[in-house]
Amino acid sequence: MTDTASLTGETLEPADLIDFDSLLRGEELVLRSAVRDFVDEQIRPHIAGWYEAAHFPLEIVPELGKLGLLGMHLHGYGCAGRTAVEYGVAGAELEAGDSGLRTFVSVQGSLAMSAIAKWGSEEQKTRWLPGMAAGEIIGCFGLTEPTAGSDPSAMKTFARRDGGDWVLNGTKRWIGLANVADVAVIWAQTEEGIRGFLVPTGSRGFTATPIAPKLSMRASIQCEIELTDVRVPAEARLPDAQGLRGPFSCLNEARYGIIWGAMGAARDSFEAALAYSKARLQFDKPLAGYQLTQQKLVDMALEINKGFLLALHLGRLKDAGTLQNHQISVGKLNNVREAIAIAREARTILGGNGITLEYSPLRHANNLESVRTYEGTDEVHTLILGQRLTGLPAFR
């Protein structure tokens, strides 16, 4: 809070009712400001057009690299080595711009780069990570299949040995960035169980086709990948990844980022509705002066404050090395569910104008439907938490 804000009783965060910024450290606030400035200057003026045209702006990728946002939680190999909370506050600012932007950072850093950093050889890390951190190389993460979403153990993509090589066949679906990526982390069944492979996307037999048309995540790219006798050398296999522990460890990194990102979209939706309600006159006074509007604004602000407190608590646990998997499910399930409700409620304050791309809430609501589905549906996270509470698995 600035001196001026202190004198007027106003805060820099319109939804902040609890002085949340006092809980953040200096470096976290500095990073948040840098990412917010980037979003304000390079994203907000263009996002409506990108969304309408279903265009992902590849030109911003090197800029994200310069900001140190790609693989920012990783250490070495050109990565920024930031904390979990720093990663979270950056994600919230990116998703306040658009979910597709935070999703790009997540696919690149939390999924593709994390897979290499956690499970790759030294040669693989040296070859790929520095260029990916700089935004010079784009990666994607091929786990989900047309008939294997919530149950990745049912994947049908298979990799067989052929001499000193591996030959991959199968189909992956809803794979972010696949048609612009340089390398794909492909998870496949083998005779030894599920393994991960680094597949250059220029390999013969590798085809990535964007999925269209979409009603959500339009300023982003999701593809279907066809693998037809794709041949890679033995050194393409991630040597330390065995079973589903490999991809799940990366998914948990991405799920953690969603906890913060969803609240960024919620906060932006709230701020759009608040500003509109103060300026829009109905029956000779601002909408914000009516009790029903104020109730909506208060309810939204309360959930935003609670959501950010939850995100910060989980971030501090992650930085301390004590965050448990079920706690990630608490954050992902709660914050995305609340963010969708907030975006939809914000749209109601905007009235008919809210269905245009001049305002962000309905765009956020549409995007969040995808966020709600990927990295574990509501149902999956509910069952994870149900098992934690009862000790009884109910997945099958």
Automatic annotation (TrEMBL):
<dbReference type="InterPro" id="IPR006089">
    <property type="entry name" value="Acyl-CoA_DH_CS"/>
</dbReference>
<feature type="domain" description="Acyl-CoA oxidase/dehydrogenase middle">
    <location>
        <begin position="140"/>
        <end position="230"/>
    </location>
</feature>
<comment type="pathway">
    <text>Amino-acid metabolism; lysine degradation.</text>
</comment>
<dbReference type="Pfam" id="PF00441">
    <property type="entry name" value="Acyl-CoA_dh_1"/>
</dbReference>
<keyword id="KW-0560">Oxidoreductase</keyword>
<comment type="pathway">
    <text>Amino-acid metabolism; tryptophan metabolism.</text>
</comment>
<dbReference type="InterPro" id="IPR036250">
    <property type="entry name" value="AcylCo_DH-like_C"/>
</dbReference>
<comment type="similarity">
    <text>Belongs to the acyl-CoA dehydrogenase family.</text>
</comment>
<dbReference type="Pfam" id="PF02770">
    <property type="entry name" value="Acyl-CoA_dh_M"/>
</dbReference>
<keyword id="KW-0285">Flavoprotein</keyword>
<dbReference type="InterPro" id="IPR052033">
    <property type="entry name" value="Glutaryl-CoA_DH_mitochondrial"/>
</dbReference>
<dbReference type="Pfam" id="PF02771">
    <property type="entry name" value="Acyl-CoA_dh_N"/>
</dbReference>
<dbReference type="InterPro" id="IPR037069">
    <property type="entry name" value="AcylCoA_DH/ox_N_sf"/>
</dbReference>
<keyword id="KW-0274">FAD</keyword>
<feature type="domain" description="Acyl-CoA dehydrogenase/oxidase N-terminal">
    <location>
        <begin position="27"/>
        <end position="136"/>
    </location>
</feature>
<dbReference type="InterPro" id="IPR046373">
    <property type="entry name" value="Acyl-CoA_Oxase/DH_mid-dom_sf"/>
</dbReference>
<dbReference type="InterPro" id="IPR009075">
    <property type="entry name" value="AcylCo_DH/oxidase_C"/>
</dbReference>
<dbReference type="InterPro" id="IPR013786">
    <property type="entry name" value="AcylCoA_DH/ox_N"/>
</dbReference>
<dbReference type="InterPro" id="IPR009100">
    <property type="entry name" value="AcylCoA_DH/oxidase_NM_dom_sf"/>
</dbReference>
<keyword id="KW-0809">Transit peptide</keyword>
<protein>
    <recommendedName>
        <fullName>glutaryl-CoA dehydrogenase (ETF)</fullName>
        <ecNumber>1.3.8.6</ecNumber>
    </recommendedName>
</protein>
<dbReference type="InterPro" id="IPR006091">
    <property type="entry name" value="Acyl-CoA_Oxase/DH_mid-dom"/>
</dbReference>
<feature type="domain" description="Acyl-CoA dehydrogenase/oxidase C-terminal">
    <location>
        <begin position="242"/>
        <end position="389"/>
    </location>
</feature>
